[in-house]
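QA checklist item 7 of 12: single-chain prediction sanity check.
[x] sequence parsed
[x] length recorded as 305
[x] structure emitted
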Amino acid sequence: MSTFWSLWIIILTVTNLVLLLWILFANRKRAVVGEESTEAKTTGHEYDGIEEYDNPLPRWWFYMFLLTFIFSAVYLVIYPGLGAYKGIAWKDTGAWTSVGELRGDQAKAETIYAETYGVYSKMPIEDLARNPDALKMGFRLFLNNCAVCHGSDGGGNPGFPNLTDKDWLYGGTPDKILETLNHGRKAAMPAWSALLGEKGIAETTEYVLSLSGAEHDAAKAVAGKKHFEVNCVACHGVDGKGNQLLGAPNLTDDIWLYGGEAATIRQTLRHGRNGVMPAQKDLLKQDRIHLLAAYVYSLSLDDNN
């Protein structure tokens, strides 16, 4: 902060305090008047025939205001509040700052939580996925960080995978789940409208529908297969079963990320999809991610379905 603005804040703050204190004492010097006085002044407020006298504050109220000024002066000496003034040393930690206070509270919290989370941080995810206490903690982490997209039950939403089935875009092993949580994922389904045109989009859609056994136009599906073999097999495979290394979904089952209706598939082919799973490694500590991975892994276990 520059010297000018520091002085500006100091002068403004002190001037306001002095003026308020003057008003308080000036009001205190006024005489108390009552009904017996013919010179009684009122504030002008009247309700149901009752008027309010313009009298000074009661003594107890006056002293309470006086205490607030004393408190303010002490506060401004100990803590930063006057421009660039940093306050006096506090508890052997140097001048007080809000950032320092936050860091101190965070350090205390980490010490406490390290005992709680540390118990599970070295345990295999497969074991934690069947540990009731660990799953309770993982569930709370999931609600705070994942439920907004995947739903509170992990059942997913359009564009956000269902975590309770066994259909994994990038793999459902503990290592793969940890990789997804730590580094995030970004889909890269390109738009095909410019290359295929509306006719090619319609034909490819019918072929994609046929892969999962859905109702489709057989004649268009034959033509669509040629488009698929030229443009889609690199990611989805010749058989359409996808590739977890690329995050390309399996098109032969009845599980759809954005929907399996013909109109939705056409939209996907026209405009592509670029869903993003945000990385959590900079948001959550590793012991939390470890528990969260265990909870996500547990959602698709057979004994939980």
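[x] summary fact logged: The mean pLDDT is 90.
[ ] second reviewer sign-off
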